[in-house]
Structure to design on (676 residues):
C-alpha cells in the first residue's frame, strides 16, 4: 500500500511546475436575481419538481392529501416537526428496511435559486438512504433560506461534518434514446413546500 | 495490449447504417443545443470557464501538497485512503478490500477510471458479481459492449435494442420499446441488486483537499443508493480529480451539468466526508499515466477534464462515427488526446479523426485547447514513426507544397482541373479512407484566392492596389 503512495508523490515532485495562484472569485461578476423566490421556483420546476407555497407546516398535509399520488394508507416517514408519518425509524436495524417507504418528508436547509437545488445534510434524516430509496420525496423549505447561486451556497455551508447532498428535482434518466423519464433509481416525484416569504 | 486500431476502419459499420448514423448525429446535436441554452442563460459563463482552468492549473502546480492534505483530511474523518501507481495496483487494492470483508456482490456507479483499469473483468475473474447501476451502463453491460459515450453510455442504441436486451436478459415480453416502461423494468431489477449488494463502488467527480470530501454527481441516484445501502463504500478516482478548496465546487457544479446535458445542476450532488455510521469508506487515488501527462507542457491541460462529454456532443466526427469507432475507453476529442498518451501506437489514428474545426475547444468548460492538442499529437505521432504509409507520403507532399507558394498555386489550378476530370476509381480506393462514404464537391472554376480578390474588388469602391489586382480583371466573368 505504501508503494503506490511513494511512487506517485515522487513522480509529482520530479516535475516542478511554475506556481499559479488560486483564483479569488469576483462576486461583482456573478449573476444577480431581483426575485430569488421566483427564480428558485422557475429552476425547480425546470428540473421536474413541483413547488407549493404555504404559510406554515400545518397546511402541508392538506395540500398533500389533495395530490393524486398521496394516500395516507401508504408507508410514510417524516423527520419534519409537526408533520407525522406512520413509519417509525426507531425500530430500524439496517438501511434495507427503508425499502418499503412510499413517502419521505424532510426539511431542507436552504435552496439555490439558479438551479433549484436544496441542501440536505445527513442530520435532517434518520439515515441518508431515506432521501434516495423513497418512492416520493417531500422537502419543506423556508422561503427565507434561498441563496442565488452555488458560490453563495458553499459560502453558507462552510465546514460541515459528515454527509450532505444537493437535491435538484426528482431522479431522472435519459439513457434510453434521450427520452427523459422521471424516477430512475431515486424518488419518482419531488414536492417542495416553500414556507413564508423571502428575506 | 489490444491491437492497433484504425479509426476509419472501425467506423465503417456505424457509418454504413445511414439512418441510424443520422439519428445519432441529431440526438447529440440536440444535447449540444441544450448546453448552449444553459450557457447563454449564465451571464458569467466565460468567467466561470476561466476560473475553472485557473483552479485546475493551481492544483496541478501544487499537486503533491494537495494530495497529502487530502489524505490527511479524509483520514481524519474516518476514510481509508489508498494509492495506486497503475491500473493493476488499483484493481488489487479494490479486490483486497472486498476479499478482506468477504464481499461477493457489488454495485458500481459510473466511473471512467474503473473502465480504464478494466476493473469489472478483473473482479469477475475473482468470483465477484459486479452490477453496473447506471441505467445506460447496465444496458451495455448486459450486451457485453463498452460505453460509447462518457455521459450517455448507450447513446448508440435505439429503444428497440434496449427492449430486445431486456427481453433476453430480464425475461420481459418481446417488442417492448417504450422508454418509460423499460426504465421501470430496470428500476425494479436494479432495486433488488442494490438491496442485495455487500459493497458499493462509485467514481468521483471532485475531491476536496481542504476537507477530505469526495463529491459524486448523478441524475439517477444510483451512486447514492450504492453508497448508502451496503456497509462498504469504495470511491475510485484519478489524482486529477482533486481541487484545493470547497469553494471551488461553486465553479465546477455550475459548469458540469450545464455542459453535459443542459441541466442547471445534476439531480444529486453528494458530498461524502468519512464513512456512514458503522460503515467503511475507502478512497483509491490512481495515477495510471496521469503524472506523465502532467509532465508535458503540451498536454498537461488535458488533466483539467471534468468528463462532461460536451466535446463529443459537438464533434462532427464523433457524431457521425459513433463512440465505438475510437476503440478507446474515452472517445471523442478528449479521448483522442488522452488515448495516445497511454499508447501512441495503438491509438495513432485518433488525432486524425478530427477536422480541426475547434468546436470542442469552444465548448470545453475547463478550457482545454483540444484541437491544438490534437494537432500537436499528429506531429508527435509522425515523429514517433507511427503514421501509416498513406498518411506519411501525402503529408510529405503537402508540407513540400505549402512551403513553396508558387508551386502551390500551380498545383492548385491543376487540382481543380483534376477534380473535374479524375476517374472515380482513383479517389475511391483503399489508400484513401476519406473517400469512403464521401463524394467530392464539384470543383470551382476559380481558386479561393482569385475569388477573394475579385469579391474584394467588387465591394471596394476604391481601386485596390496590389500585386494581384491585375488578375482581378482577368478572371472577371
Ligand atoms: S475535454 Fe472538456 S468538453 Fe471534453 S469531456 Fe473533458 S471537460 Fe468536457
Amino acid at each position: 500500500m505504501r508503494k503506490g503512495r511513494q511512487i506517485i508523490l515522487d513522480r509529482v515532485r520530479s516535475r516542478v511546475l511554475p506556481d499559479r495562484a488560486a483564483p479569488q472569485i469576483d462576486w461583482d461578476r456573478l449573476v444577480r436575481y431581483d426575485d430569488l423566490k421566483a427564480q428558485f421556483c422557475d429552476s425547480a420546476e425546470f428540473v421536474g419538481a413541483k413547488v407549493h407555497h404555504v404559510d406554515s407546516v400545518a397546511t402541508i398535509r392538506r395540500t398533500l392529501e389533495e395530490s393524486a399520488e398521496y394516500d395516507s394508507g401508504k408507508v410514510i416517514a417524516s423527520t419534519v416537526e409537526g408533520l407525522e408519518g406512520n413509519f417509525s425509524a426507531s425500530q430500524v436495524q439496517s438501511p434495507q428496511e427503508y425499502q418499503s417507504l412510499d413517502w419521505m418528508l424532510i426539511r431542507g436547509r436552504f435552496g439555490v435559486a439558479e438551479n433549484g437545488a436544496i441542501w440536505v445534510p445527513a442530520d435532517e434524516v434518520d439515515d441518508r438512504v431515506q432521501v434516495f430509496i423513497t418512492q416520493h420525496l417531500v422537502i419543506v423549505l423556508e422561503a427565507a433560506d434561498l441563496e442565488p447561486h452555488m458560490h453563495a451556497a458553499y459560502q453558507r455551508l462552510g465546514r460541515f461534518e459528515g454527509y450532505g447532498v444537493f437535491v435538484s428535482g426528482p431522479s431522472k434518466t435519459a439513457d434510453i434514446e434521450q427520452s427523459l423519464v422521471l424516477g430512475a433509481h431515486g424518488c419518482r416525484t419531488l414536492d417542495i413546500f416553500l414556507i413564508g416569504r423571502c428575506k | 495490449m489490444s491491437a492497433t486500431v484504425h479509426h476509419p476502419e472501425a467506423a465503417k459499420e456505424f457509418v454504413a447504417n445511414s439512418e441510424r448514423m443520422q439519428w445519432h448525429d441529431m440526438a447529440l446535436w440536440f444535447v449540444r443545443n441544450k448546453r448552449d441554452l444553459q450557457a447563454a442563460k449564465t451571464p458569467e459563463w466565460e468567467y466561470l470557464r476561466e476560473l475553472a482552468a485557473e483552479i485546475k492549473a493551481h492544483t496541478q502546480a501544487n499537486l503533491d501538497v494537495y494530495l497529502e492534505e487530502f489524505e490527511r483530511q479524509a483520514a481524519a474523518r474516518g476514510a481509508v485512503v489508498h494509492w495506486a501507481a497503475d491500473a493493476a495496483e488499483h484493481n488489487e487494492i479494490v479486490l483486497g478490500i472486498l476479499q478482506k470483508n468477504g464481499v461477493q456482490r457489488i454495485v458500481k456507479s459510473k466511473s471512467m477510471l474503473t473502465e480504464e483499469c478494466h476493473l469489472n473483468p478483473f473482479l469477475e475473474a475473482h468470483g465477484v458479481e459486479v452490477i453496473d447501476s447506471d441505467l445506460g451502463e447496465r444496458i451495455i453491460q448486459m450486451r457485453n459492449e463498452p460505453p460509447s459515450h462518457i455521459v450517455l453510455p448507450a447513446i448508440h442504441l435505439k429503444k428497440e435494442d434496449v427492449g430486445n436486451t431486456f427481453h433476453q436478459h430480464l425475461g420481459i415480453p418481446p417488442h417492448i420499446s417504450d422508454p418509460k416502461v423499460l426504465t421501470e423494468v430496470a428500476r425494479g431489477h436494479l432495486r433488488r441488486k442494490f438491496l442485495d449488494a455487500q459493497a458499493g463502488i462509485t467514481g468521483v467527480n471532485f475531491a476536496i483537499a481542504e476537507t477530505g470530501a469526495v463529491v459524486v454527481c448523478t441524475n439517477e441516484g444510483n451512486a447514492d443508493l450504492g453508497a448508502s445501502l451496503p456497509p462498504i463504500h469504495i470511491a475510485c478516482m484519478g489524482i486529477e480529480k482533486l481541487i484545493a478548496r470547497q469553494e471551488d465546487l461553486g465553479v465546477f457544479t455550475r459548469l458540469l451539468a450545464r455542459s453535459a446535458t443542459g441541466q442547471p445542476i445534476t439531480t444529486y450532488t453528494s458530498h461524502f466526508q468519512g464513512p456512514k455510521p458503522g460503515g467503511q469508506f475507502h478512497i483509491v487515488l490512481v495515477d495510471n499515466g496521469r503524472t506523465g501527462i502532467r509532465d508535458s507542457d503540451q498536454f498537461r491541460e488535458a488533466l483539467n477534464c471534468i468528463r462532461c462529454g460536451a466535446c463529443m456532443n459537438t464533434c462532427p466526427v464523433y457524431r457521425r462515427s459513433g463512440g465505438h469507432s475510437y476503440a478507446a475507453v474515452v472517445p471523442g476529442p478528449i479521448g483522442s488526446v488522452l488515448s495516445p498518451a497511454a499508447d501512441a501506437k495503438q491509438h495513432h489514428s485518433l488525432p486524425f479523426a478530427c477536422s480541426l474545426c475547434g468546436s470542442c475547444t469552444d465548448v470545453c468548460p475547463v478550457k482545454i485547447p483540444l484541437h491544438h492538442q490534437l494537432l500537436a499529437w499528429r506531429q508527435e505521432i509522425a515523429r514517433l514513426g507511427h503514421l501509416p504509409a498513406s498518411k506519411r507520403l501525402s503529408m510529405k507532399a503537402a508540407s513540400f507544397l505549402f512551403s513553396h507558394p508558387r508551386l502551390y498555386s500551380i498545383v492548385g489550378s491543376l487540382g481543380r482541373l483534376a477534380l473535374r476530370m479524375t476517374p472515380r476509381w482513383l479517389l475511391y480506393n483503399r489508400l484513401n479512407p476519406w473517400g469512403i462514404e464521401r463524394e467530392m464537391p464539384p470543383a470551382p472554376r476559380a481558386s479561393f484566392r482569385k475569388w477573394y480578390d475579385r469579391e474584394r474588388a467588387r465591394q471596394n469602391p476604391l481601386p485596390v492596389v496590389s500585386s494581384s489586382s491585375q488578375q482581378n480583371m482577368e478572371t472577371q466573368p
The CA atoms of residues 112 and 150 of chain B lie 7 Å apart. Chain B touches chain A through 91 residues (CB under 8 Å). DSSP finds 23 helices and ten strands in chain B.
